[in-house]
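We close this part of the discussion by returning to an individual protein. Part of our work consisted of pairing the sequence of a single chain with a tokenised description of its backbone. What the numbers capture is local backbone geometry rather than side-chain detail. The amino acid sequence and the backbone structure tokens for this protein are reproduced below.
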Amino acid sequence: MPPCTSGEIRWWIFLTEGLFFGLLLYSSLDTLSHTVGNPTHQVKGILGGSVLLPANVSQGITVEKIEWDFYPQRGGPGFWLAEFSHGKLEHQSPTDRFEQRLDMVDETTLRIKDLELDDSGIYNARIWFMKSQFKEQSFNLTVYEPVPTPQIHFQEVSQTSEGCSVTLQCQAPRKEEFSISWKRGNPPRALGNSLYEYQLSDSGRNLHVFWRKDSSDSAFTCLLTNSVDQKNASFDLLKICPGDDGVQVRRQRHIISTAVVMLLIMMVVAVMWMWMRRK
């Protein structure tokens, strides 16, 4: 075999480098496509409840098995959780971390029951279609405690001829991550934008109210909310602020007059029905 010329050598070097960079580009694009196409799904659960982790598999595709790994949110090493084949639990983690709290709703959906705070973390699903083909999906589970039931206390009550000024405090038995909001009326609705009547302080815990005696809204509701739960408590200012007697009388008259009108309408309908029947 005759020796290669310098031109042939350069050609082979160029071809080898081109093939190398082509493979490198293909690998990079494949990795980018995998990252973009399989985002981490955010899942929220409540302590003692249950959540579903559904693996996204196109209809008509046969799944051989699904392997699950778990990485705790509070740190510590991750571990193999379980393996499901055709909707049945084939092997459970030897750590027995989840005991009997895992099952499959269908062939691709994992359910975790009786949630604990330590269940928060990343759950990775490796979905096998054949021995050499699989895809991965991740779920970021956050388990929240139920919101405590609030209590409303009042202070700094002062009365004038026009109404009553009072500070309502929304108190919870323990400090957690939840938001506090206030509503007025029954059914509850937004406070409105009147700075003269309502002012908030202490991160929304305190509501300073100037309540007019001729106002139709005497009930105020405090709501504690987090991502998965909500609790509320209500307080009626008529317990500490005397209302306008004239307003109360007008309300009673309105109720009585409405009832009388409804009764008259029913009597007229009944007479007309009897008259039509005789005819």
Notes: Helices lie at 6-37, 245-278. The two ends are 123 Å apart (CA to CA). Confidence is low (pLDDT under 50) at residues 20-37. Residues 126 and 136 are 5 Å apart (CA to CA).
